[in-house]
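Appendix C: a fully annotated inverse folding record. The material below is reproduced so that readers can follow the format used throughout the book. The structure is listed first as tokens, followed by the designed sequence.
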């Protein structure tokens, strides 16, 4: 049975008062029902990041990270409906960015989407909205314990517009230049992780180092239980993140879910092994959580392209590399306290590179349509294409993020950083009602 076809004469899928807009998906409902379910669990990544970042913060600055996870979801929902979806996924996009054909959700309805003919536009739009919100929340980690909340949210809105949306267009829009190169990115190694890692590094670089290095709590998580809880939310949400990125309910998507769990588990093992050797046979719960996230990041671009044992290897190697770079902030002299660059930037680059090596068409073809080969099939040039993706996204994200932050810093009322006094006493007391903060 052929999939539904997009009809330019009915860009919204038809008038529901005149036709049954559900009829075109008869027999294919399981595809979009599956994607809706994946979207529900992807949403959990957003509060998961709030818990993770809040647990890693000092107690007197933890609420700022929790609060921003909620506000980022709200701001990016508006941004995506306003123009974000159109800039990333308009059907008439150029190779670098879309246009405003869907500005304000114009013509976004029940017709087959640009991502998959099995998925209605509205479902695809919601799913991709959650990707954007997760990415912006990752970037916000660069403001750790010294970035003001309102400028951070303004930055998130414009960062999504001029950084995330163009990169998503490059990578996933059929008109995008990386899509047609092609680089292989199943679920967001470039648009989500490489871009957020480099942008968080830019955020920390522009803000400068924290001033409370002499305090006893400097660099120590105030609540390891929150770190653990946040990591579990993220791990669970990643099943939808990777599992839904095939935009169908085929066996390829099921394998992507299995690969996700495999890589995260092997990431835990890799990081714990490094900690065990470095710290004289002692363990770290935070380290194990970081290992899980490193494994999840590493497998993101590869989940629908590699076999389960290569997924295990990708998760294990990514976690080991990230764990061995524990002191990278000291080496580059940038105070990026939440390790966003290390886990997402470096982890994303590792995953994208290894995707080029281990991708095989025997896995991608499990959806019945995709033939994507990599180095393991003898397609060595794919590694070069992956390096092109890594280089372009890294450079664009860092440079544009720095420029945007410097511009915002000169706008009255949007100075990026709190005062030294506020940083010392904690952001929560300064930016929230006193009655909400316990002693």
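Designed amino acids, in order:
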């Amino acid at each position: 049975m052929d999939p539904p076809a997009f009809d330019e004469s009915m860009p919204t899928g038809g008038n529901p008062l005149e036709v049954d807009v559900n009829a075109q998906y008869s027999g294919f409902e399981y595809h979009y029902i599956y994607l809706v379910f994946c979207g529900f669990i992807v949403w959990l990544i957003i509060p998961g990041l709030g818990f993770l970042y809040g647990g890693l913060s000092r107690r007197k600055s933890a609420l700022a990270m929790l609060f921003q996870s909620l506000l980022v979801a709200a701001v990016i929902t508006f941004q995506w409906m306003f123009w974000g979806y159109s800039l990333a996924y308009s059907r008439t996009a150029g190779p670098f960015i879309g246009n405003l054909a869907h500005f304000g959700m114009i013509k976004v309805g029940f017709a087959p989407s640009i991502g998959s003919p099995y998925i209605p536009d509205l479902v695809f739009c919601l799913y991709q909205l959650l990707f954007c919100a997760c990415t912006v929340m990752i970037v916000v980690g660069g403001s750790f314990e010294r970035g003001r909340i309102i400028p951070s949210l303004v930055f998130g809105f414009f960062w999504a517009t001029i950084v995330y949306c163009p990169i998503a267009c490059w990578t996933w829009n059929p008109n995008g230049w990386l899509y047609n190169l092609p680089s292989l990115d199943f679920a967001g190694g470039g648009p989500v992780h490489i871009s957020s890692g480099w942008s968080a590094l830019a955020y920390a670089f522009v803000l400068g180092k924290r001033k409370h290095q002499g305090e006893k709590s400097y660099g120590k998580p105030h609540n390891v239980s929150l770190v653990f809880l946040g990591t579990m939310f993220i791990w669970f949400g990643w099943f939808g993140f990777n599992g839904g990125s095939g935009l169908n309910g085929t066996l390829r998507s099921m394998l992507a879910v299995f690969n996700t769990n495999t890589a995260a588990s092997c990431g835990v093992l890799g990081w714990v092994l490094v900690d065990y050797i470095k710290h004289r046979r002692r363990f770290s719960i935070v380290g194990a959580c970081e290992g899980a996230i490193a494994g999840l990041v590493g497998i993101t671009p590869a989940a629908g392209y590699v076999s389960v044992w290569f997924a295990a290897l990708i998760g294990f190697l990514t976690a080991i590399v990230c764990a061995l770079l524990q002191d990278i902030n000291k080496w580059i002299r940038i105070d990026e306290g939440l390790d966003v660059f290390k886990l997402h930037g470096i982890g994303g680059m590792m995953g994208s590179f290894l995707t080029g090596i281990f991708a095989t068409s025997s896995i991608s073809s499990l959806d019945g349509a995709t033939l994507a080969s990599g180095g393991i099939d003898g397609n060595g040039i794919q590694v070069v294409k992956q390096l092109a993706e890594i280089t372009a996204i890294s450079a664009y994200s860092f440079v544009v993020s720095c420029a945007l932050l410097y511009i915002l810093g000169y706008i009255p009322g949007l100075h990026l950083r709190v005062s030294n006094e506020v940083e010392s006493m904690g952001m929560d007391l300064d930016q929230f009602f006193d009655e909400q903060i316990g002693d």
